[in-house]
Structure formats: structure tokens, C-alpha cells
Amino acid sequence: MADYCPVYAPFFGSMGCTAAIVFSCLGAAYGTAKSGVGLSAMGVLRPDLVLKCIVPVVMAGILGIYGVVVSVLLSGGLAMKQTLFSGFIQFGAGLSVGLSCLAAGIAIGITGDAGVRATAQQPRMFVGMILILIFAEVLGLYGLIVALILNTKAAGGEMCAIRIYVPFPFSPILPTFIQ
């Protein structure tokens, strides 16, 4: 008899929560640090532009919020008795937002570092930097959207109590009852 609700199924959901927050915060931390280095170097040359050029640091911090949102939503769907399908869906949702926010954080960090340094030398570069930062930020937003859609597909433990009757009792492939 196949067990569709093994005891280790909630582990995958928990790892989805963990992946969402860890990878998103890694991306946010890298983006903040890399942009902050560029901002500090730019502040020596042009201290009047520091407040204007703090945008990459703020945009990198938003990536961590995406991870927190998905992690909280996924943790609300965890149950002691959970289907393996649900655990895998939650794991995939956590990975989708986490890894996309990690990629977005790397892109924001590199763009922010180079962008604020370029803005110090040529202030007209600011608009171009903001546009590139928006395109980098939307990568994390794509992961958030996919994670939210995946989370709607994850069912709780209600499927674990249902016994499905298979009408072919002597079939060598299908068992009489699937739990």
C-alpha cells in the first residue's frame, strides 16, 4: 500500500519556508552591501547625492520582505499530517522566491554599485540606473508571484484521511485501497 502522507512530508514544506527566507535575505544582504560600498565611495566625491542615490539599498531590502511574506504563508500551510505533494509544492514555492530574490539581489548590488559611482561623475546617469534597478527588482517579484500561485495548489492534511477505492481488486498494478 502506497503512503502518500509519510512522516517526512512536512520536512519539505519546512525547507520551503527556510529556503524562502534564507535565499531572499542573502540576496537582500548582498545587494545592500554591494550598493552600500558604491554609495560610500560616491559619498566622498559628492556628499550632496548620498540621499538621492540610496535607492539601490532600499530596493535590495525589499527582496527580504518577499521572502518573509512567502515564508509566513508557507508556514501557515504546514501540518503534521501532510501529503508528499503538498510538501514538494511548498518546497518549490520557497525555492522559487528564494533563488529569484538571490539573483535579483546580485543584480541590484552590481548595478547599484556601478550606478551610484557613475551618477557621481554624470548626474544624468541616475534615471538609467533606476530603470536597470527596476528590471533587476522585478526578477524577485516574478519569484514571489510564482510562489504565491504554487502555494494555492498546496493542500493541507485533508487528503491523508481520504481512502480512494479502486474498482479493480485483482489488478497487479493498483492496490485495492490507496491511502
UniProtKB/TrEMBL annotation:
Transmembrane segments annotated in the record for this chain: 7-29, 49-76, 88-110, 125-150
The UniProt entry lists membrane topology as: Multi-pass membrane protein
Alphabetical keyword list: Hydrogen ion transport, Ion transport, Membrane, Transmembrane, Transmembrane helix, Transport, Vacuole
Q: Which residues form the V-ATPase proteolipid subunit C-like domain?
A: 15-74, 91-150
Q: Which InterPro entries match?
A: ATPase_proteolipid_c-like_dom, ATPase_proteolipid_csu, ATPase_proteolipid_su_C_euk, F/V-ATP_Csub_sf
Q: Which domain of life does the UniProt lineage start with?
A: Eukaryota
Major localization listed first in the record, in broad terms: membrane
Give compartment(s).
Vacuole membrane
Q: Where is the signal peptide?
A: none
What CDD domains would the database entry show?
Answer: ATP-synt_Vo_c_ATP6C_rpt1, ATP-synt_Vo_c_ATP6C_rpt2
Alphabetical GO CC annotations of the entry are: proton-transporting V-type ATPase, V0 domain; vacuolar membrane
Q: Which residues form a coiled coil?
A: none
Q: Name one GO molecular function term.
A: proton-transporting ATPase activity, rotational mechanism
Q: How does it assemble?
A: V-ATPase is a heteromultimeric enzyme composed of a peripheral catalytic V1 complex (components A to H) attached to an integral membrane V0 proton pore complex (components: a, c, c', c'', d, e, f and VOA1). The decameric c-ring forms the proton-conducting pore, and is composed of eight proteolipid subunits c, one subunit c' and one subunit c''.
Function recorded in the entry: Proton-conducting pore forming of the V0 complex of vacuolar(H+)-ATPase (V-ATPase), a multisubunit enzyme composed of a peripheral complex (V1) that hydrolyzes ATP and a membrane integral complex (V0) that translocates protons. V-ATPase is responsible for acidifying and maintaining the pH of intracellular compartments.
Q: Which family does it belong to?
A: Belongs to the V-ATPase proteolipid subunit family.
Q: What is the name listed in the Swiss-Prot or TrEMBL entry for this protein? A: V-type proton ATPase proteolipid subunit
Which lineage is the organism of this entry classified under, starting from the top rank?
Eukaryota, Fungi, Fungi incertae sedis, Mucoromycota, Mucoromycotina
